[in-house]
Specification:
Blueprint lengths: L1 H13 L17 E4 L14 E5 L2 E5 L5 H5 L12 E5 L10 H4 L3 E2 L3 E3 L5 E3 L2 E2 L2 H8 L3 H4 L1 E6 L3 E2 L4 E2 L12 E3 L8 E7 L4 H19 L3
Antiparallel strand pairs: 1-2, 2-3, 3-4, 5-10, 6-9, 7-8, 7-12, 9-13, 10-11
């Protein structure tokens, strides 16, 4: 019995860390594909804040910085704890193991965006200021952001995550066709103009990961 139990534990330990979803191209290193560029005017960010696009995941650290920590670090009596989060490309927004997906209620992969949704009025594009006001996100104040829709359609395909001619009265008023109807923030406080490059890096890293691991 002891030998059997020992053999069982050995086989179990040999399986740890072998899931293809967390694997890397080189077993001894993790390649950083891109780093987010944060604007320096944001008090909530500091020297330990980061957002990395890795070859198999995205990783972020968001210590609870305040303006006092940013402007007068010598006055602080203790270090802030790190708040590190890592999401592999088969978890989080990309997790397809879901009851709603299994029955077909939601379909498609997440879609990432680096700009605020655009709007139209009387078949003409609205100005950028209006788009920013509706989104409540101003690049000059809050920086750019990367946000996403968790799926392409819901209710068995009846409710697309992007605007269509039906949702904007054939371009008369509303969210512009092809733009997201709702999104969730992934990262904020980016240098204006850098979010689209970060979106491209996420999409490319995830595509390379899928080709290497054989996962969708």
């Amino acid at each position: 019995i002891v030998c059997f139990f020992t053999l069982f534990l050995f086989k179990m330990s040999a399986q740890y860390g072998t899931d293809p979803g967390i694997s890397t191209a080189n077993a001894n290193q993790i390649q950083i594909m891109a780093k987010a560029q944060f604007q320096s005017s944001c008090c909530a960010l500091g020297p330990r804040s980061y957002f990395y696009v890795l070859e198999n995941s995205i990783e972020t650290n968001k210590p609870l910085y305040t303006c006092a920590h940013t402007w007068c670090p010598s006055l602080m009596c203790c270090n802030l704890p790190d708040m590190i989060s890592k999401v592999y490309f088969d978890r989080g927004p990309w997790d397809t193991f879901c009851c709603l997906r299994a029955v077909g209620c939601i379909k498609g992969n997440p879609m990432f965006f680096g700009h605020n949704p655009k709007h139209v009025f009387c078949c003409m594009d609205c100005c950028q200021c209006y788009d920013d006001c509706v989104a409540g996100q101003f690049a000059w104040c809050c920086g750019d952001r990367v946000h996403y829709t968790p799926y392409e359609s819901a209710c068995c395909g009846c409710c697309p995550a992007r605007a269509t001619s039906c949702s904007n009265c054939f371009g008369l008023w509303g969210v512009k066709t092809g733009e997201p109807l709702f999104t969730l923030n992934l990262i904020t406080g980016l240098i204006p103009g850098s979010s689209e490059q970060l979106v491209l890096a996420i999409d490319n890293a995830r595509a390379s990961w899928a080709a290497r691991t054989g996962k969708n």
